Amino acid sequence: MKIGHTTAPDVLRVRTIMVNLYIVRTGTSWILIDAGLRGYAESIAAAARAFTGTSAPPSAIVLTHAHFDHVGSLAALLRRWDVPVYAHRLERPYLTGESPYPPPDPLVGGGAMALMCRLYPRSPMNISDRLLLLPEDGSIPHMDGWRWEFTPGHSAGHVALFRNADRVLIAGDAVTTTKQESALAVATQRLEMHGPPAYFTQDWHSAADSVARLAALEPEVLATGHGTPMRGQAMREELHWLADHFAEVEVPRFGRYSDQPAVTGEHGIVMLPPDPLPKVAAGVLAASVAVGLAARRSRSETRALR
User: Fold this and answer.
1) In a shared domain, residues 304 and 236
2) Which of 26, 169, 188, 190 lies at 20 to 30 Å from 178 by C-alpha?
3) What is the pLDDT of residues 191-216, one digit of tens each?
4) DSSP character string of 213-252
5) What single string gives the DSSP state of each residue in 4-19?
């Protein structure tokens, strides 16, 4: 059974239901980029053995960010492998048990995946004994020829990885190639360029800047956290179009973070905008009651006329 798909020379994509992780060969060793959903540690290790030809552990694990669907199998993998985990300093509080992520927003994006987002885990994990911070100079330890690009918005410390030699971009969730809010699009992996998953995006202004930064790299291969990798001139044109029209096609008109971002820092959540969901729910309830009363009154009047 094939459990991975070659994305570029020395880069393997492994899909865990709705999210991708990547295995990157680096000379005599390899690196794991993200850790997918929970329960996939054995599949990830098997894919690595098949792709690298060795049972040796990776030199390191690098995280684009620490949302639940990108670190789900991390704890199990760290029980298997004694290796360091690298992340941006602004992701540190979510990897040391210090702070949960800002709450997701079910009012944005549309689709079943968005509606269910309040059920998704956002509690921090604690891997303090393995965690190292990415160097501020943009280099990635154990990954010669690669650099990390700061791409906040979806999360405060989100990063993408770029290899200049062949212009391979591992974008994490800064952009996606399927509409992640839609359960149907996720199930069929319908190919279409989008911004980050809306329900977990906490800063839309930063997200727009990040998409523009990635488009400016002029990648040849775009390997995303959600959706099938894309490549070539057509992909670059779509990426530039997304960057140019991000405000009109991606930023929600209504939602918790649409006008005001969540403010976070090196210790996690600092300030959250008010949650509009209770008011929306109250409005929907009031409207339902009004419709019900109107229908009852109409039935009563109809009976009175008989």
Assistant:
1) no
2) 26
3) 999 999 999 999 999 999 999 999 99
4) HHHHT--SEEEESSS--EEHHHHHHHHHHHHHTHHHHTS-
5) -EEEETTEEEEEETTE
CA count, 13 A, side-chain hemisphere, 274? 4
CATH code of 201's domain: 3.60.15.10
Report how far residue 239's alpha carbon sits from residue 219's, in angstroms, rounded to the nearest whole number.
9
Pairing of strands 60-62, 29-33: parallel
User: Looking at residues 290-294, what average pLDDT do you find?
Assistant: 51
pLDDT reading at 291 higher than 60 = no
Sheet order of strands, 230-231 included: 146-150, 159-163, 168-172, 221-224, 230-231
- CB burial of 251-266 (b: ≥16 within 10 Å; e: otherwise) equals bbeebbbbeebbebee
Residues 281 and 255 in one domain: no
Length of the chain: 306
Residues 6+ apart with CB under 8 A from 133: 86, 87, 88, 89, 92
Range of the domain at 87: 5-275
Pairing of strands 168-172, 263-265: unpaired
| Per-residue model confidence (pLDDT) at position 282 | 47
- Give DSSP secondary structure letters for 162-204: EETTTTEEEEETSSBSS-TT-HHHHHHT----B-S-GGG---H
* Six token digits for residue 225: 């956290």
DSSP secondary structure letter of residue 52:
H
Q: Are 222 and 173 in contact (CB under 8 A)?
A: no
Give the residues across from 31 on adjacent strands. 24, 60
- The string of pLDDT tens digits covering residues 43-92 is 999 999 999 999 999 999 999 999 999 999 999 999 999 999 999 999 99
- Which alpha helices (H) appear in 41-199, and where do they start and end? 41-52, 68-71, 74-80, 112-115, 183-188
Computed on alpha carbons and rounded to an integer, the radius of gyration of the chain in Å comes to 22
